[in-house]
Amino acid sequence: MARTVYCEYLNKEAEGLDFQLYPGELGERIYNHISKQAWAEWQKKQTMLINEKRLNMMAADDRQFLEEQMVAFLFEGKDVKIEGYTPPAP
């Protein structure tokens, strides 16, 4: 049976992640408060950010920047600003 969490991103009960995907306390917070759907949304944004800003995941500064963007997106309701990207009109 699927695990359900109250997703802070969606502001509703939703299917939780199957396991902790991110290390440490932040990883626990994501596992306990972020749904699969919200994590999938973040993954799309993360890929665009890495490509747009040519982030190097071996560089501590780039990882720190990405983590800050992730927290803002998942927990603070802030959208990720990607230069040159216009979201499709609804």
Automatic annotation (TrEMBL):
Gene3D superfamilies: Fe(II) trafficking protein YggX. InterPro entries: Fe_traffick_prot_YggX, Fe_traffick_prot_YggX_sf. Keywords: Iron. One of its GO terms (molecular function) is iron ion binding. Pfam families: Iron_traffic. It comes from the Bacteria. Could be a mediator in iron transactions between iron acquisition and iron-requiring processes, such as synthesis and/or repair of Fe-S clusters in biosynthetic enzymes. Necessary to maintain high levels of aconitase under oxidative stress. This is Probable Fe(2+)-trafficking protein. It comes from Idiomarina xiamenensis 10-D-4.
